[in-house]
Design a protein that fits this description.
The chain is α+β, with helices and mostly antiparallel strands. Helices cover 53% and strands 20% of the residues.
């Protein structure tokens, strides 16, 4: 107990230096929390948008489609499989989709296009594309000839609202197939790939283009809770076992997004590493200066019978108090900023007036902070460990003090 009292008293002998060091550690920890929260919020927002606009949290498709996309690699009995998957708890929506790579042309021009056939009333892409429509309307259920195209594609084709176009592709049997369509709407998402090379049609029209009456390229599975992804995947797998169909995570379907998140996380960790180095140097300076200033005091304590190991414990306790106080203040600052940013967000619109994109995924201009307790505790553990590690050298130096030399030299 006496060592605890001595350590606390010694910490405040030089109040100004202690407060400056505490402020430096606290601000560094708070900045690390803010950086981590914004990074996680940014990544989660990108993933949610990519999942909603892309192939869902889970994708059911031909097991070889990812490696070698082809119009003949379809999910057999897609409608029956869709209904079976919808009965699994935790499923929000299951959408049948047909993806066709083909050509679209008007009397003025032609362009390569990725055609997505969907059920207009239930597909999740509607929530993303409908607000982005700048001309016309979204597809209707009974619209068997309508097509929705991107603004850049419409400009290249010189296609007007209500105008005719022809889509051509290779059907499931390898023959060339064509269908007449009319432009019902034009959208602008800000994603170059979508605005310039994407068209959406109804599921019956896409099947007619492929020359099939049933089946789908994929079933896009959307979950109520993204944390249930692994559990739901295990429940779907028995439904497709014994066939050429397989279940894939969104990480398998969108590897570019996974790589981007990993690289961005690496940048965040480097930034936090720099903060930790600055914090460590500040702590080392404070504790080492404190030890050097009290060399004579330590010499007297050893001369009066204090064991060197108790001196070592004393200095380590001082470092511990400094770390805990700093972490407490830093947590208040960092979590306070997190709560504000989680509610109001950080507006990134000043960087560009265009829709912000990265790795082919769109994200909103306002980024909200997201922190999970495990990440906060992990970061606190790192800062605390670094603090103690840096305090070891001054503690060992204090424990090795020569009482005779310390008393005579520093008197």
């Amino acid at each position: 107990m006496i060592l605890l009292k001595l350590a606390w008293r010694n910490l405040w002998k030089n109040r100004r230096r202690t407060l400056i060091t505490m402020a430096m550690i606290a601000v560094g920890f708070a900045l690390a929390l803010i950086s981590l929260g914004l990074a996680d919020g940014f990544h989660n927002q990108m993933i949610r948008n990519a999942v909603r606009l892309g192939s869902g949290n889970l994708t059911v498709e031909h097991r070889d489609y990812l490696a070698e996309p082809s119009n003949d690699k379809l999910v057999a009995r897609a409608s029956a499989l869709r209904d079976a998957i919808r009965g699994i708890p935790g499923i929000r929506n299951v959408s049948e989709r047909i993806i066709v790579m083909g050509l679209i042309y008007t009397t003025d021009n032609s362009a390569g296009v990725a055609i997505l056939g969907v059920d207009p009333s239930s597909d999740m892409t509607r929530k993303t594309l409908e607000p982005k429509i700048i001309e016309g309307r979204y597809l209707k259920d009974d619209d068997k000839r309508g097509v929705l195209i991107g603004a850049d594609l419409a400009r290249r084709l010189r296609a007007s609202l209500g105008g005719k176009a022809v889509v051509t592709a290779q059907d499931a049997s390898g023959q060339i197939s064509s269908q007449l369509v009319r432009v019902r709407g034009v959208f602008r998402t800000g994603i170059e790939e979508m605005d310039g090379y994407f068209a959406q049609v109804s599921l019956p029209l896409a099947r007619a283009l492929l020359g099939v009456s049933e089946g789908a390229t994929q079933l896009a599975v959307f979950l109520e809770n993204e944390k249930d992804q692994a559990k739901v995947k295990r429940e779907i797998e028995p439904l497709v076992s014994g066939s050429k169909t397989a279940v894939f995570d969104w990480q398998d379907v969108m590897p570019d997004l996974v790589l981007f998140v990993q690289m961005d996380n690496a940048g965040t960790y480097i930034f936090m590493g720099i903060i930790m180095v600055v914090v460590a140097l500040g702590i080392l300076n404070t504790i080492l200066m404190s030890v050097l200033e009290r060399t004579r005091e330590f010499g007297l304590m050893v001369a009066l019978g204090m064991a060197p190991r108790r001196l070592l414990v004393l200095v380590v306790l001082e470092t511990t108090f400094l770390s805990l106080c700093s972490l407490g203040v830093g947590a208040i600052l960092g979590l306070g900023a997190h709560l504000y940013l989680a509610t109001h967000g950080l507006d990134m619109g000043f960087a560009s007036q265009e829709q912000l994109t990265a790795a082919g995924a769109v994200f909103d201009s306002v980024v909200y902070s997201e922190l999970v307790p495990a990440r906060v505790l992990f970061l606190m553990g790192i800062v605390f460990t670094v603090t103690l590690a840096v305090g070891i050298y001054p503690a060992i130096r204090a424990a090795r003090v020569d009482p005779v030399r310390a008393i005579t030299k520093f008197q």
